[in-house]
Amino acid sequence: MIAGSAELRDRAGTAALAPDPPAAARVVVLGIGNTLLTDEALGIQAVERFAAMYRVPDHVQLIDGGTSAMELLDVVADCELLIVVDALLANSTPGSVVRLAADAVPVFFRTKLSPHQVGLSDLLASLEFAGQSPRTTVILGIEPADMRLGLELTPIVEAHMPELVGMIAAELRGAGIDLAAGSTRM
User: Which of 21, 28, 30, 115 is deepest in the core (most CB within 10 A)?
Assistant: First the structure.
């Protein structure tokens, strides 16, 4: 018997292999940012906080993308759902929580909203060129108040981090993913 396949018998008793059940679609939650630049770290911190609160199924990957971009091609390629979490420069009040999805994602790349936009734009363009784009991309973030050298988030951004973490959970639940209390290793 082939590993991962179930043996079935037809009416004549001849063995036949049943196909493996479909694997759950791969989901990537990608926190990006620079942990040395105050609010610039909010994407990574949000995903870390989410990971400390929830256990996710094996098909969901929680990734600290740092300031990487093209290095993440293999991680993001062909995923069903990509949730990017980052500081977003949306010309709104510092601390404003932002969600971009569907038609708003391509528009995101026409205006510089994230310090990592060039890298993220290149990553998504490369995946599209290769025919390996995520089926759905959602970008979540907070308008930063300060991105100077510093290891702590500003108070206004810190105050909105629970909402951002809750938005990550809501996106996953909205995609039919069960979350359990606990923690997930990143």
Answer: 30
| Residue whose token pair is 């993001």 | 76
Give the H or E element holding residue 162: helix 155-174
- Specify the DSSP class assigned to residue 53: H
CA 29 to CA 168: how far, in whole Å?
Answer: 8
* Domains assigned to the chain: 27-181 (3.40.50.1450)
Residue 137 and residue 147: Cα distance in Å, rounded?
Answer: 25
User: What is the three-class DSSP state of 116?
Assistant: coil
**Amino acid identity, residue 162?**
P
Q: Judge contact between 172 and 27, C-beta under 8 A.
A: yes
107-163: per-residue pLDDT in tens?
555 554 455 445 777 788 888 888 998 999 999 999 999 999 999 999 999 999 999
Query: How far, in whole angstroms, is CA 76 from its chain's centroid?
Result: 9
- Reduced to 3 states (helix: H, G, I; strand: E, B; else coil), residue 9 is strand
What gap in Å lies between CA 38 and CA 16, rounded to an integer? 59
CB-hemisphere CA count at 13 Å for 54?
Answer: 23
Sign of CA dihedral 132, 40, 179, 59: positive
Listed residue (144, 69, 80, 140) closest to 105, CA to CA: 140
